[in-house]
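Holo prediction. Input below; ligand is zinc ion.
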Amino acid sequence: MSEKIIIFDTTLRDGEQSPGASLNVYEKLEIARQLTKLKVDVIEAGFPVSSPAQFEAVKRIADESEVIIAALARAKEIDIKTAFDALKNAKRPRIHTFSSTSDYHILGKFGHAKYGATLDEKRKIILQMSYDAVAYAKTFCYDVEFSAEDAGRTDIGYLADVIEIAIEAGATTVNIPDTVGYTFPSEYASKIQELKRRVKNIDKAVISVHCHNDLGLAVANSITALQFGARQVECTINGIGERAGNASLEEIVMALKVRKDLNDFYTDINHNEIISTSRMVSGFTGVVVQPNKAIVGENAFAHESGIHQDGMLKNRETYEIMTPESVGVNKTKIVLGRHSGRHGLKSRLNEIGYHPSDIELTRAYTAFLEIADKKKEVFDDDLRVLMGDEIYKEEELYVLKYMHVNAGTKTIPTATVQISFEDKVVQESSPGDGPVDAVFNAIERALGLKLTVESYNVRSVTSGRQALGEAIVRIRNGEESFNGRGSSTDIIEASAKAYLQAINHYLLLNGIKPDVFESCASGK
Ligand code: KIV
Ligand code: ZN
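Structure of the complex:
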């Protein structure tokens, strides 16, 4: 009989830990709604104790969702209580608590003598902490997941003890993460098999897997673990996540569907929503999908060579193991033009998964009209990029009011920008190595900042000379990095907007207000 695989999406928690990815509460809400439309079983919405913004996002998602909403908590009372406070209005809350179990993690994180003098003593203390954390979480809700962090590198005997005690304390799901993406599929499979053999109460909980992609094996490991008895898989849209990312949801789901002949598994995922979800996550996080990425990459269904094209024309199955339509590719159509009204824009946005409030719709409509003015046809992908700009902004941000760039073969590129904040405007000019460098320098001068640009990419969103250009900039300040994204039919303007957006994320998250606005005159 076909068995169901539970899809646990952690895009909003582990995925948001991708370098530079930062989402505000409104963007998280939109992604959670889209994940619901995709029909994932569990949404891990965040780590409430880590910041007030995380708490708020988990709470808002929990308040309105029908699916299971999970919140992460270390094995500490304050984390667990805060996680439940955020989840308390959820129809189906899940507390997800975890302890570190590998020797690397135990010695690295629990070195202090209060956790015992020897490794053996430390292990005993962590065993007890795991039991207590699950038992405490159970006082708030029935559905409790326990993870043994770095299970991939944990001694099997100790791992079995921790898992057994967590189930004894009431864990309904036990997760075996390959936290550092270290294991090989055969090794991971033996781990799952061994746990099934050693843990006497294992049938009382669902076995879950959570694989990172450091060696490019996250999806292979996840699928192998399912074949050996796991029934929940933790994954993210586009495979985003810490370092090399997590196992990609779309790859796992489509692999199970396409190779049903090898595994009698099913998921409840609505495959037609895969592309929309992928584009939305990329748009909001600013994490670009590589063109050759399986399932959702730009080239995933492109056939370039003559032999392939010829084969495809004769019979699609010659070179295609699944259709682009099955993941929602052909849902992209020409939609709107400069005569389209606000209502038309709103209904198309709803169809592709966006639900802007009235204020957000006004911003989106103004931006849409600017694009439609320059470009005759506005495609769904244009709308997605537009929604990934500053439509869901939370506060009055630093806005690019005006930009002028002078560049050519025999001139030193120079740029002038005006940036506004509330009713104040600052203006600055600067030369640069090229027009983009000049405009970045002018923005830095205007705000009195100097930042490191870690990466900068420009691409055309759709085809043709009037295509919308999209720029993505990642800046770094010490340990932190921030992405910004901007779009325009003019790629220099797109770059300026992207840079300013990255700066806005940095300033807002750190509560910094540039001094320049204190002294300057009102621009009204
Ligand atoms: O990778 C990991 O181990 C995690 C746990 C917190 C589940 O993300
Ligand atoms: Zn993880």
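Residues 119-138 form the longest helix (20 residues). That is the main takeaway for now.
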